[in-house]
Each structure stands twice: as structure tokens, then as C-alpha cells.
Design the sequence.
């Protein structure tokens, strides 16, 4: 027998409708909240990380544009100039593995701050170098300290920013990279031409020490998750990721290209008699 209840009958013929006014939950979850809530502590962490990558690329640019002046002052061969240019990278491939692992167990802002402090001291020492050996030693130690730079900074940002905010944060981070390279060439070239290449390194090393201090005293620590698996287990899992292998290959090719670019300023000064400021 058919039900005589009008309510039941209406439910049978017309199933309940879901309002289209309700926003899709996945769409809401995917929206970035980077700019919500005003300037927060996570944005201050980003400011410090951007300053770090700016200093790193200013240092690289100043070194590139100083090579010809170093060659003339110390009477270096092209092979020795290449050694000075590449010395900071000799230890980075191995040292980065250890500093990255250390940052998984020690507050990242402290590892980053300590690395920047050592890097700043070595940058200042480069300006005080009076021999080829001193130049190479200061650059090797700078590279050792700098191994706690880029990878630890990116990991620190990942601690403070959600997945939906990370792309925006990395956009600012990479903008700092480009700006640092430009400032290093512009300001470094001016200092090298006007007062000498040593002042260019002293001018970059000093802000690095201030930045290291700010990282140590102003950045808060975040709770860390316990990690039970061994280092070897982590490495095996990482090496099985095709995307990571492709990223490593791209980073290698980018490094090769960056190494070639370090000699552009020296070639321009030598072949076309240009000043460092003009380059």
C-alpha cells in the first residue's frame, strides 16, 4: 500500500538537494593563506632567509668580479684563478649531507645562523688575504660554512609555511637570489673600482654577521618530530625518487653554468680593457 504521509511521499519523489552556495571543501583547503592575518613570525623568518640568499649571491658575484684584480695583485696563473673561484665548492657536496642531517635534529635557525656566522668571518678573511694560499683557504672554509645555507633555509621555510603557502614563500626567496646577484655586481663593481676588491668582501661580510645574530635571537623554535629510522634508510628512499634525481641533475647543470659565468667579468676586463664597475 502506498504511504499517505505527504512528507514521506515528497521525499520519495524529490531527493534532498545540496545547496550550491556551500564552497567546495577541497577548493577552500587549496587556497593560500600567505597574506592572511598580517605580518606574522613566519614572514619574519622569510625576511631573514631572503636576506641570507641575497648575501650568498652577493658574495658569489663579488668573487667573480674580483678575480681579475686578484690575478693582477698576486700574479696568479689562470689555473690558480680557477682554484680560487671554485674553492668554496670543493667541500659543499659532502658537507651539505651532514649539515642537512644535523638540521633534522637541531633547531634549523641555529644551524643556519651558525653557518652564516662562519661564512661571514670567512668572507671578511678573504678581504684580509695576502697570498694565494690564504685566498684558497678562506674560500674553502666559506664553502664549508655555506653548506648550511640554502638547504637549511628552504627546510626552515617548510617548517613555518603550509604546503599551500610554500610556493609564494619560495617566490620571494628566489627573488632575493636574483636581487643579491645584481647588487653584488653593481655594488661590488663600484667598490672594486673606487677603493679596491678587499672592501667589496668587507662590505658583504659585515651584514652576514648581523644576520647570523638576528637568526639566533629572534627566530622561535618549533617542536620537532621524532625520527626513528636510520640515515642509510633515508638515503635509500630518497635515491628511489625519480623527481629528486632529476632535480639533482638540473642543479648539477645549473652549477656548471654558474661556474662558467664566474669568468665572464675577468674575460671582459682582460679582452676589452673594461673596469669592474663597467662590467
Sequence:
Amino acid at each position: 500500500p502506498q504511504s499517505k504521509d505527504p512528507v514521506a511521499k515528497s521525499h520519495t519523489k524529490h531527493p534532498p538537494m545540496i545547496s550550491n552556495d556551500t564552497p567546495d571543501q577541497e577548493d577552500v583547503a587549496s587556497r593560500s593563506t600567505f597574506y592572511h592575518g598580517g605580518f606574522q613570525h613566519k614572514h619574519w623568518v622569510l625576511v631573514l632567509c631572503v636576506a641570507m640568499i641575497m648575501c650568498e649571491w652577493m658574495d658569489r658575484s663579488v668573487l667573480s668580479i674580483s678575480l681579475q684584480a686578484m690575478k693582477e695583485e698576486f700574479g696568479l696563473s689562470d689555473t690558480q684563478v680557477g682554484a680560487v673561484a671554485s674553492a668554496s665548492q670543493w667541500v659543499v657536496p659532502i658537507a651539505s649531507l651532514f649539515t642537512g642531517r644535523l638540521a633534522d635534529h637541531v633547531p634549523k635557525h641555529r644551524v643556519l645562523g651558525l653557518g652564516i656566522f662562519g661564512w661571514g668571518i670567512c668572507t671578511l678573511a678573504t678581504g684580509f688575504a695576502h697570498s694565494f694560499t690564504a685566498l684558497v683557504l678562506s674560500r674553502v672554509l666559506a664553502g664549508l660554512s655555506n653548506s648550511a645555507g640554502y638547504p637549511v633555509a628552504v627546510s626552515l621555510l617548510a617548517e613555518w609555511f603550509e604546503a599551500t603557502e610554500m610556493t609564494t614563500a619560495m617566490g620571494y626567496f628566489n627573488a632575493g637570489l636574483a636581487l643579491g646577484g645584481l647588487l653584488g655586481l653593481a655594488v661590488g663593481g663600484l667598490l672594486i673600482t673606487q677603493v679596491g676588491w678587499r672592501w667589496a668582501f668587507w662590505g658583504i661580510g659585515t651584514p652576514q654577521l648581523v644576520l647570523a645574530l638576528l637568526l639566533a635571537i629572534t627566530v622561535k623554535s618549533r617542536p620537532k618530530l621524532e625520527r626513528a629510522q636510520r640515515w642509510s634508510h633515508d638515503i635509500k628512499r630518497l635515491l628511489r625518487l625519480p623527481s629528486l634525481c632529476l632535480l639533482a641533475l638540473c642543479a648539477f647543470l645549473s652549477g656548471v653554468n654558474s661556474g662558467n659565468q664566474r669568468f665572464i667579468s675577468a674575460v671582459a676586463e682582460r679582452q676589452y680593457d673594461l673596469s669592474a664597475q663597467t662590467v
